[in-house]
Amino acid sequence: MAQEAAVTAGPRSGARRQFLNDPDDVVAEALEGFARAHSDLVRWNRDPSYVIRADHGAHGSKVGLVSGGGSGHEPLHTGFVGRGMLDAAVPGQVFTSPTALQVAAATQAVDTGAGVVQIVKNYTGDVLNFRIAAEIAQDEGARVQQVLVDDDLATDPQLTGNPDGPGRRGTAAVVAVEKVCGAAAEAGADVVEVAALGRRVASSARSLAVALEAPAHPGRDRPSFDLGEHEVEFGVGIHGERGVGRRPFAPAAELLPQLTAPLVESLGLRRGDAALVIVNGLGSTHPLQLSLAYREVTRLLDGLGITTARSLLGSYVTALDMTGCSVTLVRLDDDLLRLWDAPVRTAALTW
Amino acid sequence: MAQEAAVTAGPRSGARRQFLNDPDDVVAEALEGFARAHSDLVRWNRDPSYVIRADHGAHGSKVGLVSGGGSGHEPLHTGFVGRGMLDAAVPGQVFTSPTALQVAAATQAVDTGAGVVQIVKNYTGDVLNFRIAAEIAQDEGARVQQVLVDDDLATDPQLTGNPDGPGRRGTAAVVAVEKVCGAAAEAGADVVEVAALGRRVASSARSLAVALEAPAHPGRDRPSFDLGEHEVEFGVGIHGERGVGRRPFAPAAELLPQLTAPLVESLGLRRGDAALVIVNGLGSTHPLQLSLAYREVTRLLDGLGITTARSLLGSYVTALDMTGCSVTLVRLDDDLLRLWDAPVRTAALTW
């Protein structure tokens, strides 16, 4: 068995070595490790697979909050399970939606009678499976609301000229949606109010990402795309797919404005407006690089008179070991600011 | 200027693209970004360069805590500046010690009259420059104590057979030393007590690391060493240098015990003992991979009857974008456990 795994996991020419045993087991083994490391916060339900707050149900009735999606984006979503954020996260295989039965089981598990809000990133598989799961849970008597997160400006129909496509993908804005909904649920808002707040955050958020290097799937030996020596991949999502186009490699002071300025325009942000700024590493981007990128983003906003009211700097929504970053802007008002600032205690976010 | 930077920063054949402008400015620009993102916690003194708690001096007199070293290891040390941990961090250029004048300035800045503890990783340049800085500060009337962190078993003289060498390097155990000393200082311990606790943590800690891929310096176009297709670099430090030897690539269930078992032996851990377990990403290691590695480490400890009393799982002490991980074990007693559990609020560690 170990021999077989060694052969499977072993790199070939130019390959990336990874910590794994059998590639088919990477998600389950990682979830087991994650739950071991954070047993004060979460427990892992192995089958059907979901991660749930260790103290779920200990604090009476409140709106349950569930999100999920393919694995490979860690710390999303499992890292956001805990007080003030998600009640459960439902991980699929790498870059693969969780099944409707997984999502339904998690939805029912977190329902204390106050209803459940499902936070869904806009991908065809996730949308489909969460919808079926919601119907299953509703058939069993749960009140279920859904919030669709679709912040990726690179896939905006107005820009792609494809009005019949799936629309904007869901990327790093999901962290803001989960944080705000989590705070509202913790404060006793009802299921309709929590969902309305989540939709408000989603509609106030836009993101763009650039990749400097493609990721490699566990057990596969090559990056998912190749870049020329002087190119970057602009408008990438979080699944290792190509972006909307290749652009010339350039200094950070030129690259980051290419990500940030279109967000400002799309949201119609003006002098005096306040924004939450998320500069997010896509997997292999070093903190030095992210801090430097953050400097460029906020200098541009300073110049436009837009206030960086709050920020999040780190690798929160990743695409395996892709090198690059995404920039997310969320228009803030006093309500959202207060919910963003509310206490949170999860593996990836605590204050 | 931008044109010039583009040429400097541009990758050549097989190179890694990075977010940067002029490579000479990467540390300063990243520090500016870091301080912008965490203005509630820290401020950056540009010249001489150090990062200091934003609320320094606001809470009366307490032992000051300073650490530092070359950059490229972020979030270490700047990410650990804040309540319950460091008062200041002194960053050098990438993989280069800060100057004695930088360290002396930070030491004097955090001295409220209760003395200062310097936490120094065991590298020749750091040891030398912190010693000179301590003498400068002492000449100005400060009481300065030093804690040397030397946890890297790969460079243990007993194993390398070089008793006249610099001894064990300081690596991820420095996080535990900073946490415990920070909690003690916050609780009002005096400068001798804080230093003694730090030394107790350092002497109770051992680490080993393995690299799956070498890092590349900012602005350089090649990894710092090459690995064969079926090799890993065993016993690496955190400066992109080669380790103590090449070993065959193997499944995680074989690689992680190679890191963990020697630590158990070196510390003389036995059935019933309690340990802090740090599984630390070296820069580009995805959370999925780290969680999987953590599973292997703690399964081994479970089998030996050693209790994983506390753990830290994530990328805390990095070597630029090296792929790989380190494992650190710290023998815990009730005092250390209590100090580890005390509240902390920094950019990289909060509970």
TrEMBL record, chains A, B:
| The protein, known as | Dihydroxyacetone kinase-like protein
Q: Where is the signal peptide?
A: none
Xref: InterPro entries: DhaK_dom (IPR004006), Dihydroxyacetone_Kinase (IPR050861)
PROSITE patterns, sorted: DHAK
Record's GO cellular component terms: cytosol
Q: Which GO terms describe its molecular function?
A: glycerone kinase activity
Instruction: Answer whether the UniProt record assigns the keyword Kinase to this protein.
Output: yes
